[in-house]
Amino acid sequence: MSATKDIRLMKGNEAFAEGIIRAGCDGYFGYPITPQSEVLEYLSIQKTKERTGMVVLQAESEIASIHMVYGGAGCGKRVVTSSSSPGISLMQEGFSYLAGAELPCLLMNVVRGGPGLGTIQPSQSDYFQAVKGGGHGDYKMIVLAPASVQEMYDFTKLGFDLAFKYRTQVMILSDGAIGQMMEKVELDEQIPRLTDEEIIKKYPWVTTGKTSDRERNYITSLDLNPARHEILNRKFQAKFKKIEQNEVRFERIDCDDAEYLFVAYGSSARVCEKAVQLGRAKGIKIGLLRLITLFPFPYDEVARLAKQVEGILTIEMSAGQMIEDVRLGVNGAVQVEHFGRLGGIMPAPEEVLNVMEEKFIKTKVYA
Amino acid sequence: MTEEIIIAGFGGQGILSMGKILAYAGMMQDKEVSWFPSYGPEMRGGTANVIVIISDERISSPILNQFDTAIILNQQSMDKFEDTIKKGGLLIYDPNGITRHPVRTDIDIYTIDAAYESSRMKSSKVFNMIVLGGFLKLKPLIDPEHMHLGLEKSLPSRHHNLIVENEKAIEKGKEIIMPKYLLN
Question: What ipTM goes with this model?
Answer without folding.
Answer: 0.92
